Amino acid sequence: MRSKLKIILVACLAAQAAASSEIRIAKSCYVIGDAIASAINTAKAAGLALDNPKPDIQELAEHLFGNEASIAAAKVRLNKIGAIIFAPPDTVSAERVLWEDKKEMKKEDIVVFCDLSRFERDANGEVFWDNQNAQWFGRKSYAEWNSNRENTEAETVSEIDGDNGSLVGASIYVFPWYIKQMQARKNMEGFTAVLNNDPKAIAMIAEVVKGIGRNWNYYKDKGMASGHPMARMDIVHAVLDGTMLHELSHTWAAGISEDVDGARSYGWGAAVEMKNPKNADSLSLFAYAVKVVQSTRFEVDIEGDIADYSTGIFVRKSKLEKRRDDEIDRMIREILDARWRS
Fold it and tell me: Which region is the signal sequence (predicted)?
């Protein structure tokens, strides 16, 4: 479970028939296909980076996972995420990938939904049901889900078949308002919601690091729910695909990672402290730290700081327009404020 940001999730323990699971997305989720693909590719790249790792990658792994046995366990989990099959809707038949928002899922699959239309009130109004899979939970829980609270990112429950008690497929539910917010960020000059390998996304790392530098003094003493101060990697990691990688790690297909220490499981500082390859945020943070190191000339240290030691393809000597700086600063402050409130 990732809490206190801006996405809702049901990551359910799945009974899996095939060697690899396949992700399908509901029609309401069409716009986040690139984030899902990026999350899988980023996990795969991080797993590959642990094959005969370079010194900087080895150092990152030791910071977040500790000894060689733990690093090896993290690699297995990252490889499982990287092996999940996903074909974006524009590359294959829509019937294969796009899922009806109320369609029954198969046990071996992971389905991403972006509304709550599957859930219906029962006769006495006390619980809500996913009639396809007999999923239910209390009225209070549903009200919290449906309130669009901006300080809640994700919650994880297990779906079981009410008739026979068997586990069913993994369902990820993403709030529509969160997708709109990510779309707005994606359309902003100098910013993006998905940290894939396109030039804009890679250049954003440099711009965000500069912007954090301009804003950091105001926020440096503010901590996260984990009890640790924020790190610059926590801000770079606050992208839609970073969240999706975290949530995918909770699924049976990816080894059922956990939020090992509840609310204290999130963020770079917590990951360094616990050094646990079963912790979902640790896996996702490592994968995105590897991306920063491999895609730019920045380095990431044990504090989660991002420093530029390059001579520099990403070091811009010309000044950005003040308007653009102000927009980037506004977005960074929004992220920092949300993290601080969490």
Answer: 1-19
